[in-house]
Please model this.
Amino acid sequence: MSKEITSREQDYSQWYNDLVLKGGLADYSAVRGCMVIKPYGFALWENMRDVLDKMFKDTGHQNAYFPLFIPKSLFEAEEKNAEGFAKECAVVTHYRLKNDTANPGKLMVDPEAKLEEELVVRPTSEAIIWNTYKGWIQSYRDLPILVNQWANVVRWEMRTRLFLRTAEFLWQEGHTAHATREEAIAETQKMLEVYADFAENWMALPVIRGVKSANERFAGAEDTYCIEALMQDGKALQAGTSHFLGQNFAKAFDVKFSDRENKLEYVWATSWGVSTRLIGALVMAHSDDSGLVLPPRIAPLQVVIVPIYKGDEQKAKIDERVLPLIQELKAAGISVKYDDSDNTRPGWKFAEYEMKGVPVRIAIGARDLENNVAEVARRDTKEKASVSLDGIASHIKTLLNDIQEQIYNKAKAFRDANITPVNTWDEFVSVLDNKSGFVSAHWDGTGETEEKIKELTKATIRCIPLDNPQEAGTCILSGKPSTQRVLFARAY
RNA sequence: CGGGAAGUAGCGCAGUCCGGUAGCGCACCUGGUUUGGGACCAGGGGGUCGCAGGUUCGAAUCCUGUCUUCCCGACCA
Model:
C-alpha cells in the first residue's frame, strides 16, 4: 500500500489528517466526533502522561478519581461555569433499555426508566469535586488539598478534528483548595510553569506564557493563565490552561474552613488541565511532508534498526552484531526496535518509519559490517551518516539529545519570526492575512473592542504575556490609550 | 447546526447519468526469485456496494430516510 501524504502547501488540513491517520496515531470511529486512539498514538500519550504525572507528584499533588456523571443540580450550582458549558453537555436521562416489541431484535429506551434527576456527563469536574471537597475541609489544617485526576471528558462539539477538538477526549484536571488567595494564585502560576516546562523541554514546543482576556477566560474563573503555541500554518493553539478560581466554587458549594483565629472563611481554588490536544500540537509543530517528526524524549520508539542483507548467511552475521547493540542501547535507556521482518523491503521500512516519526534509523548491511560501520539517519533533518559501530550507542544517545534540541530550536526560530509587532489597523489586517502568526498590538483593554476585532478579522487575543513590558500606545482599532501590547492570532 | 462533497474488498479508486453475472491497482495468502529508498514472477482468497425502507421481473445504479467522514461557515475555555 502506498501511503502518500498531502503536502502542507497543497492542503494543510488534509496534511494534518493524513499524518494522524497514516502515522498510526488515531482512526475515526462509528461515533460522531469521537476517535479511536491507536496503540502508537496511545503510547505517545502514555509517555506524555507519565512525565506530567511525575511532575505533578514532584510538586506535591496526588491522583484521585471522581465520577463521570454529575447530577444536574450540582452542575448548575456555579452559574457562570454551568452557563459556559451548558450548550455542549451530553445528558443522561434514562437508565435502562428494553426489547422493542414493535421491532423484534431491537432495543428501545424504557420510558419507565426515566431518571428522577438528569446526569450531566462531565465536560469538566469542578462541580462534583467541590461538592466532595465540602466534606473534606473543616479547618486550615485540612488545606491545601492538591489533587489531580486523569480522566475522559465530553464536550458536544459541532465541528470536530482529530485530537484538536473531539467530543470525548482524555486529559488531566488538577483541582486544588487553599487557605489564602496568594497561595492559590501561586499554585496557578506554578502549574502553568510546569506545563510550559513540559511543553518546551519534553515536547520541544516553545510556548508563550500568558493571561487570558476576560472574554477568553474559563467560565467561573477569576483569571485564566495559558500557554500558547504556534503551528506551522501560522495559527495559534492553546496548549494548556491554569485557572485561579477565587472563591467562586467555594461559595457555590459552601466550602468554608476555620482559620487560625477560628474565623470561618471560604476556600480559594485553582484548576488546571492539559489534554490529548497536545498531540495535535505536537504533530502540527514539528512534522513535515514525509510524515511525523517526534521529539526523542517522548517518542514511543526512539531508534529503529533495519537490516539489509542477501540470504540467511548475511542476515545471521548482521544479527550477531545487532543483538548486542540492542542490549547496549536498551541499557542506555533508549527504546529500540529491530525490524527484521521479511515481508517488506528496506526502502519500504525507511518510508514507514519516517511516516511514524521515529527519531533515529540505523541501517546495517553486509558492506557496513565489513567496514565496522552503520548508516545512521536522523528523522528531523533526514541527514544520513556513516558511524563506526564502536561506541555507536553513546553516539546515538548524543544524537537523540541533539535532535531534541534542534527540533525545539527550529520551532522556536519559526515562532519568534512570526511574532509581528504592528501599530496600525492596516498593518494588523495585512499581517494577519499575508503572514499570520502572532501579532503584537496595542489594545484598549475592553471586551467590546476585542469582540469587534474578532468579528472583523477572526483573530482573538491569545494572551497577555506574563512579564509583558509596559509601554504607552494607542489601540489599533479604537485609538484609545493603551499601556501594553497583547498577542492576537487566528487560532485553533 | 446551515451550505457543498464523499461512502463500492484492509487502503486508493472505476462502475451510477442510461437498472441486467461487481471490477482495477496496492495490500493479503501460497510457491519461487529478491533485499543499500516504498521489489518481481506465477497461482489464489476476500465485497449483503455505509445502513434502513421503497419502486421494479430484476437495484451499486432510480426514489425516500438515516449514519459516518471531509471542506466552508456558525458555535467553541
Notes: Residues 170 and 271 of chain A are 16 Å apart (CA to CA). Chain A has 14 helices and 26 strands. Chain A has three domains: 12-68+126-286, 303-414, 419-489.
